[in-house]
């Protein structure tokens, strides 16, 4: 019986053009196995479908030319291999030659190679084609079986670290009943990714950010001048802020491999639950999917999933085209977010709003000059010798975005609360002087963040110069929603 089943399988692998589709499935399964701890498998479904469609188009186009399904499958498989893995060849060439000059024009080289292969392949007889098809099908099937085995082992036997919030006895952080407050204020939570504090900008970059500070003060904001973020990675920082709490064992984790442990704490977070219980209309203009409130733009985990899939692909190796598209992606991301925000701010409703607005600014990639114009693709492709200058230029533009958003919000005549924070300071500080660079990080400058508050009644008595994001919503809920959350120690965790 086993022999009969093996013959059937062998016959299928010889006769049917399966290899390009097996290969695509393997690529996605392998990407998930590599990064299963910090990407969501659902983020792979859509690109998998699109990849299968693209491979099918190539396969059927070749089939119409070659009149041979097996030959078409083999050539499609070769092209698919080249597409997904040429970046590894590029890395190999750079490692051993110090240059990738002969890969710089990779697209015409690949096209010439495919044409030569096609001309040679046309002369293959049926026996050779069947054998080659069998080899490709069997190879990719074995790869899939091995990766399924790895996935099963990881799920069933590998010890999983559990991330937990610090417990607080007698306080579940979300009231069961809505508070009876008439005319509840609109609440805006604005996150500027990797925005350092003015103190850090002055000390480490020689940049005077007093123009933004003066603007905020003129708008009656309170600035926490000595604020430090509680974490230096975005997802941990936001998960902590949105749950008003610390994680027990975050210092023991490996980064970025353990990012996936925090997704549920963002998806089911206490701040969104609280505002929902209070009857708020909630808008999520961020990069995180949150229960009932999906991300307005590409989610953080999906972006990383796509990075794993295509970072070594032909798409990225064709450098100038890739970077031009990448640059345009970030420009459109900002434009769309501002447009969505503008549409929302114009709506007049009796129901109070909670709006979470997250900008990938001044965080790299450094797309913008200080006036908001796009850097040219030639500047964008340069290495990071001027990374500090690029950061400051993008920060100057970010200040214009901040002022624009604040002015828009304050045009409203409704009561409002505004929290503006950098989720952490700049982690990508560069100095050729190793001592200066070491001092930057030993001084915890990667934690020093922008942190400012606007309360409609100007009552800032619960705030202080070192208050950190973990306490932001505790203060808001205590002061305006009759809660009694104890303020936590303002601490940096790692």
List keywords for this structure.
7% strand; Alkaline Phosphatase, subunit A; 494 residues; six-stranded mixed sheet
- Poorly predicted residue ranges: none
Largest sheet: spatial strand order? 2-6-5-1-4-3
Mean pLDDT: 84
Number of domains: 2
- CATH level 1 class label of the largest domain: Alpha Beta
Largest sheet features: 6 strands, mixed
Q: What is the fold named in CATH at topology level of the largest domain? A: Alkaline Phosphatase, subunit A
Portion in strands: 5-15%
Query: In angstroms, what separates the terminal alpha carbons?
Result: 59 Å
Q: Which shape, going by the Cα principal axes?
A: elongated
| Structural class by SSE content | alpha/beta
Count the E strands.
6
Taken in chain order, the helices and strands follow as: HHHHHHEHHEHHHEHHHEHHEHEH
Oligomer: single chain
How would you name the CATH homologous superfamily of the largest domain?
Alkaline Phosphatase, subunit A
Rg measurement, Å: 27 Å
Query: Helix fraction?
Result: 40-55%
């Amino acid at each position: 019986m086993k022999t009969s089943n093996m013959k059937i399988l062998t016959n299928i692998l010889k006769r049917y053009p399966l290899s390009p589709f097996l290969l695509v499935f393997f690529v996605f399964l392998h990407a998930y196995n590599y990064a299963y701890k910090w990407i969501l498998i659902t983020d792979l479904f859509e690109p998998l479908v699109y990849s299968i469609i693209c491979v099918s188009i190539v396969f059927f186009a070749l089939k119409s030319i070659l009149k041979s399904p097996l030959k078409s499958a083999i050539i499609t498989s070769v092209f698919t291999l080249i597409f997904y893995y040429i970046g590894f060849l590029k890395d190999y060439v750079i490692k051993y030659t110090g240059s990738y000059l002969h890969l710089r024009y990779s697209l015409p080289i690949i096209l010439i190679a495919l044409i030569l292969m096609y001309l040679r392949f046309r002369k293959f007889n049926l026996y050779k084609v069947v054998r080659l098809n069998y080899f490709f099908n069997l190879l990719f099937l074995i790869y899939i079986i091995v990766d399924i085995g790895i996935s099963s082992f990881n799920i069933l036997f590998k010890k999983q670290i559990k991330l937990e919030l610090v417990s607080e006895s007698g306080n579940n952080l979300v009231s069961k009943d809505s508070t009876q407050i008439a005319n509840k204020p609109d609440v805006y939570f604005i996150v500027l990714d990797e925005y350092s504090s003015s103190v850090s900008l002055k000390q480490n970059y020689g940049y005077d950010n007093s123009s933004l500070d003066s603007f905020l003060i003129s708008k009656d904001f309170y600035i926490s001048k000595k604020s430090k973020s509680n974490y230096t990675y975005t997802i941990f920082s936001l998960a902590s802020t949105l749950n008003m709490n610390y994680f027990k064992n975050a210092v023991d984790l490996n980064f970025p491999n353990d990012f996936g442990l925090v997704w549920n704490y963002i998806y089911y977070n206490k701040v969104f639950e609280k505002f929902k219980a209070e009857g708020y209309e909630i808008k999520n203009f961020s990069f995180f999917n949150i229960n009932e409130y999906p991300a307005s733009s590409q989610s953080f985990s999906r972006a990383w999933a796509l990075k794993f899939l295509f970072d070594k692909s032909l798409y990225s190796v064709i450098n100038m085209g890739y970077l031009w598209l990448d640059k345009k992606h970030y420009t459109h991301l900002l434009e769309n977010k501002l447009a969505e925000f503008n549409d929302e701010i114009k709506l007049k409703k009796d129901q109070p709003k909670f709006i979470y607005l997250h900008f990938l600014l001044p965080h790299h990639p450094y797309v913008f000059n200080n006036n908001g114009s796009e850097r040219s693709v030639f500047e964008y492709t340069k290495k990071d010798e001027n990374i500090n200058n690029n950061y400051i230029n993008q920060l100057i533009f970010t200040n214009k975005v901040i002022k624009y958003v604040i002015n828009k919000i304050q045009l409203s005549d409704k009561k409002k609360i505004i929290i503006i924070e950098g989720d952490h300071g700049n982690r990508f500080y560069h100095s050729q002087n190793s001592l200066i660079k070491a001092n930057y990080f030993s001084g915890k400058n990667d934690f020093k963040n922008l942190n400012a508050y606007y309360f409609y009644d100007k009552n800032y008595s619960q705030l202080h110069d070192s208050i950190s994001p973990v306490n932001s919503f505790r203060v808001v809920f205590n002061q305006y929603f009759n809660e009694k959350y104890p303020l936590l120690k303002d601490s940096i965790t790692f």
